[in-house]
Amino acid sequence: MPTRKTPPANPDLLMDLVAANRILAMEGVLDGYGHVSVRSDKHPERYYMSRSVAPQLVKVNDIMEHGADSEPVGDERRPYLERFLHGEIYRQRPDVMAIVHSHSDAVIPFGVTRSVLKPIYHMASFLYSGVPVFEIRKTRPDNDLLIRDAELGRELAKTLGKCSCVMMRGHGMTVVGDGIPEVVFRAVYTQTNARLQTAAGHLKGPIEFLTEEEGRRATATNRGTVERPWELWKAKVMASG
Ligand SMILES: [Zn+2]
Hints:
Order of helices and strands: HEEEHEHEHEEHHH
Number of strands: 7
Bound molecules: zinc ion
Radius of gyration: 17 Å
Structural class: alpha+beta
Strand content: 5-15%
Shape: globular
Helix content: 25-40%
Largest sheet: 7 strands, mixed
Strand order of the largest sheet: 3-2-1-4-7-6-5
């Protein structure tokens, strides 16, 4: 028997998750693929994420509660195939409250070359903690690149470690944050940083990246203003209802 659904989540949390889906689609971080989740406010080992639908089309009724095993709780609708990466990161990182998984084309080069994604400007200063690359072949030599079970989710979470972002070779990226506004901010600016770093790579180098100390300080400053772009983005995507 499936576990019964728990008391409904805070409606504002679910509406923010809907907004996050639409914002990330608007910004090109997500397209028909990719997903965003938030840790449950009722059961910290669980999380909320849409059923398998394109992010721009997500409505509040599409959101399902997922258990610690990443299976939908008391819900027969089809979940995202790669849901395990969310569940296993929430398990290994108690500080993480929201996660974005994206196939943004801007970041792909940084998973398949020796160029390491680094903070090139203050908006992506959170990358100072490092951006490791997940090599799925180390866990699963015969693979289709997707995080399709808990074992792969665990290994991805291990590679992420204490960082804010992990590249996935030949696949995409996963970004974590302390809530929906922060994870959306980070996903958007990781994508922009990747574009800028690629552009700077065509100019006369070497590239002057932020120092670790600058990264730390700018991250602390940005944390105080993350609500500003969040409110702007949310107003844009929710204006149409
Ligand atoms: Zn994926």
